[in-house]
Amino acid sequence: MSLTQQLKEKAALSVNKHPENIREVMNKAIQELADSQLIPKALKTGDTIPKIILPNASNKLVSVQELLLDNKVILSFYRGGWCPYCNLELRALQNSQEKFKKLGAILVAISPETPDNSLSTLEKNNLSFEILSDVDNVISSAFNLTFTLPKDLVEIYNNFGINLEQSNGNKKNQLPIAATYIIDQNGTIIYDFIKEDYKERADPDKIIKNLTK
């Protein structure tokens, strides 16, 4: 089953799982994000990425520019290991990793979670690619992807047991828009997938198609 199909099934189950008032808050937050016009300002195909040096799950600094010396980089911004849609995406990317490598690309995922929480995400999903911690969303903001969650949605997340303050190591309640990029070796974005709805992600098959262009 493709990632796109898995995400649709997960979203359908969520509709039946959550009461209408919670769904309304979630859908309202997505609409407000769309109304904010953040995506038109985000980095896209043809843009050059900023310098990226972030700690991985072992708290070792990783430079994306150094990785680009030998490979293209598939860069995936995700919300956190607490997000079931993110976990589906990360596992799908992992399953396609060998295909990406054969096409000269390696995976790097970025979230605002602390390295310790990134390590938990890596271990939970049996990931073998770099998971980088963008604490305070510095890199996400450089890509113009950072937004602040509405207070009513934060309250819902807290009731779900999702503590963003603990996950991200700050009280900002900010997340990146879930986005995927393919970066050419010269640092230029050659593919982008950016959606306000966190339930939509770049399917590995689409990434592969764009790697073969």
UniProtKB/TrEMBL annotation:
It comes from Aquimarina addita. The lineage of its organism: Bacteria, Pseudomonadati, Bacteroidota, Flavobacteriia, Flavobacteriales. CDD domains: PRX_like2. Belongs to the peroxiredoxin family. BCP/PrxQ subfamily. InterPro entries: AhpC/TSA (IPR000866), Peroxiredoxin_BCP/PrxQ (IPR050924), Thioredoxin-like_sf (IPR036249), Thioredoxin_domain (IPR013766). This is thioredoxin-dependent peroxiredoxin. It catalyses: a hydroperoxide + [thioredoxin]-dithiol = an alcohol + [thioredoxin]-disulfide + H2O. Its EC number is 1.11.1.24. Coiled coil: none annotated. Keywords: Antioxidant, Disulfide bond, Oxidoreductase, Peroxidase, Redox-active center. Residues 43-213 form the Thioredoxin domain. It holds the Pfam family AhpC-TSA. The keyword Oxidoreductase applies. PROSITE patterns: THIOREDOXIN_2. Thiol-specific peroxidase that catalyzes the reduction of hydrogen peroxide and organic hydroperoxides to water and alcohols, respectively. Plays a role in cell protection against oxidative stress by detoxifying peroxides and as sensor of hydrogen peroxide-mediated signaling events.
